Amino acid sequence: MAAIHKKDIPAGMDAYDAWCDAAHALVGVETATDIAPALPRPTMALAVRYSLHMLELKAPGPGVEVRVAPWGAVKILDGPASDPHNLTPPDVIELEPAVWLRVASGITSWDEEREAGHISAVGERDDLSAILPLG
User: Fold this and answer.
1) Which residue range or ranges hold the Bacterial SCP orthologue domain (predicted)?
2) What is the rounded distance in angstroms from the CA atom of residue 63 to the CA atom of residue 86?
């Protein structure tokens, strides 16, 4: 299942840009790993879904599942696909929406968020620093 409907991509891009603008305005004012602009819930959902869609385009594959609850999950990178009985690939990464948007946009790095304890990752391919930030 796609992270975002095709018809919602333009609105998702606008939502992601709005989040990035609001987050960049907080750089230097707040600790980077605490930046979490308070945008309306629909805007946050679209920003997450759009950025997951961009990740999926950048690193397609069935090997790693990236989950950003409650708004989306995508499978990326080459590697073993899900077990047909389980449907979860061997590598799973879970992030809160603000954490995901910070690393996706480059506000923080993968290592900064991991050291802060903000990334839950299981498996051999649990480091996305080579493909982040997205833009």
Assistant:
1) 41-134
2) 14
Question: Which residues, at least 6 apart from 77, have a Cβ–Cβ distance to it below 8 Å?
Answer: 59, 61, 63, 64, 91, 125
pTM score, two decimals? 0.92
Q: How far apart are CA 110 and CA 103, in angstroms?
A: 6
Q: At what angle do helices 97-105 and 9-26 cross, to 10 degrees?
A: 90
Using only the alpha carbons of the chain, give its radius of gyration.
14
List pLDDT tens digits, range 94-113. Answer: 999 999 999 999 999 999 99
d(CA 37, CA 19): 7
Domains defined for the chain, CATH in brackets: 6-116 (3.30.1050.40)
